[in-house]
Design brief:
- Helices cover 0% and strands 53% of the residues.
- The protein contains no helices and 11 strands.
- The relative contact order is 0.33.
Length: 108
């Protein structure tokens, strides 16, 4: 069992930045950030292994950065140059476990 708690979402203007955090109750080999916009399927945004190997969705590469603090079991998603199409509920995931999600809204 792994508990995941996300934080850091909010309302931001286009071009702005947010940093999401995911606090995990224990370590895991891979963590991912997913997002789900209204009426759309949940999709992978970025993932990271415990040794720092990363994968990004094409539309966020160069704008988003995923990182991990293995000592604290916290995974971050730094999001820069946010766009309205990034608006979604963002979820942290590892194995079969999901956090409760945090809302990110990009709007002027």
């Amino acid at each position: 069992q792994v508990q995941l708690v996300e934080s850091g979402g909010g309302l931001v203007q286009p071009g702005g930045s947010l940093r999401l955090s995911c606090a995990a109750s224990r370590s895991s080999s891979v963590f991912g950030w997913f997002r789900q916009a209204p009426g759309k399927q949940r999709e992978l945004v970025a993932s990271i292994t415990s040794i720092g190997a990363t994968i990004y969705k094409d539309s966020v590469r160069g704008r988003f950065t995923i990182s991990i603090d293995n000592a604290k079991n916290v995974v971050y998603l730094q999001m820069n140059d946010l766009r309205p199409e990034d608006t979604a509920v963002y979820y942290c995931n590892t194995q079969k476990f999901w956090g409760q999600g945090t809302q990110v809204t990009v709007s002027s």
